[in-house]
Design brief:
Rossmann fold; six-stranded mixed sheet; 10 helices
Length: 298
C-alpha cells in the first residue's frame, strides 16, 4: 500500500463507439473506448493511476515537495501538480525549452494548480530537476511518472478491463514514456496490445521492452506502430488531424493532438489495412484534452 489517497474512484467506463466503428468498416458492437480521460483528478488521464504510486512514495518518504519533468504541454506535469495539490505538497515542474510568450493549455492549468514552473532552456530537464530536488526536501518523480513500479498501476487497469470486456482482442494505446503500454502488456500479453509511438522517446519499442524486463514480463512479440510520429512529437500530422476530426464528429469524443490523436490514427490505419485481430477492439482514451488548446498547429 502507498501513502496517497485513492485518486481513481473505481473502474472507468467502457463506452460503445458504433458510429466510429461503422466509419472504419467494423461491426457496430466491435469497437469500444475505455474512458481513463474521465478520471476526476485535474482533468483526468492515464497518469492519474501512476500518481497513486509515485505520490504515495513521496508521502511515505516524508517529502514536502515533488519535482518532475516534461514537455511544455505535458499532461503528466499537469496531473502531478493536481495530485500534489490534493495531498498538500509543493510541486516543481521542470519543462523542456524556453518559456513561451503566452501560457495556454496545460501550462495555464499548471499555474492554476499552484505549481512552480521552471523552463530548462538549453539544459537537460532531468539534470535541472535532479539539482532542484537536492536543494529541497523533495521527491523526484521520473519523466512521465514512469517506472517499473508505477507501470504496475496499468497492470491493474488491464485486469480491470478484462473484467469489463472478457473477449477483448486488442487494446490500442498511445506510447509516451511507456509505462501504460507496459502495464497493459503485463496484464493482457503482447498479442492483445498495440502501442502507437508518439515520438516522446527515441525508441518506443525498446523503452517498453526494458520496462517489461524490469517487471519480469516477456516482451516477445511486442507490437509498436512507429508510423504516426511524422515530423516529431510536437508536430501535428495530417493523419492525426483526420483522426481527431473523425472521432469528434462520429462519437462526440475529444482527443488530443499528441497522444490520443496519434493512437487513433494508428487504429484507423490498422482497420484500413485489415490487420485487427479477432475479438473486440478497445481504444484506451488516456486524456490530454488541455493540450489541444496549447498546440500551435491546430
Amino acid at each position: 500500500m502507498t501513502g496517497a489517497p485513492p485518486f481513481v474512484g473505481g473502474p472507468t467506463p467502457v463506452d460503445a463507439a458504433p458510429r466510429l466503428a461503422d466509419a472504419l468498416g467494423l461491426p457496430a458492437d466491435r469497437l469500444l473506448v475505455k474512458r481513463d480521460d474521465l478520471i476526476g483528478l485535474g482533468g483526468g488521464g492515464n497518469k492519474v493511476r501512476k500518481l497513486e504510486v509515485t505520490i504515495g512514495d513521496a508521502l511515505e518518504a516524508g517529502a514536502d515537495v515533488v519535482v518532475t519533468t516534461g514537455a511544455p504541454q505535458s499532461n503528466h506535469a499537469r496531473l502531478t501538480a493536481a495530485a500534489a495539490a490534493r495531498c498538500g505538497l509543493g510541486c516543481v515542474l521542470v519543462l523542456s525549452g524556453h518559456e513561451p510568450e503566452q501560457r495556454r493549455g496545460n501550462l495555464l492549468l499548471d499555474d492554476l494548480l499552484g505549481a512552480e514552473v521552471v523552463f530548462a532552456g538549453d539544459d537537460d530537464p532531468a539534470a535541472v530537476a535532479a539539482g532542484l530536488a537536492q536543494q529541497r526536501r523533495a521527491h523526484l518523480i521520473p519523466f512521465g511518472g514512469t517506472s517499473a513500479r508505477s507501470a504496475e498501476a496499468y497492470r491493474r487497469a488491464g485486469e480491470e478491463l478484462l473484467e469489463q470486456v472478457p473477449d477483448v482482442g486488442l487494446v490500442v494505446v498511445a506510447v509516451g514514456s511507456g509505462g501504460t503500454m507496459a502495464g497493459l502488456v503485463a496484464a493482457l500479453g503482447t498479442a492483445r496490445v498495440l502501442g502507437v509511438a508518439t515520438g516522446a522517446v527515441v525508441d518506443a519499442h525498446d523503452t517498453v521492452a526494458t520496462l517489461l524486463d524490469e517487471m519480469g514480463v516477456s516482451a516477445a512479440g511486442l507490437r509498436v506502430d512507429d508510423g504516426q510520429i511524422g515530423e516529431g512529437y510536437e508536430h501535428l500530422t495530417p493523419a492525426t488531424r483526420d483522426a481527431l476530426t473523425l472521432v469528434a464528429r462520429t462519437e462526440g469524443v475529444l482527443l488530443d493532438p499528441t497522444y490520443t490523436g496519434r493512437a487513433m490514427a494508428g487504429l484507423v490505419a490498422a482497420a484500413t489495412a485489415g490487420s485487427l485481430p479477432p475479438g473486440r477492439v478497445v481504444f484506451l482514451h488516456t486524456g490530454g484534452l488541455p493540450g489541444l488548446f496549447g498546440h500551435p498547429e491546430f
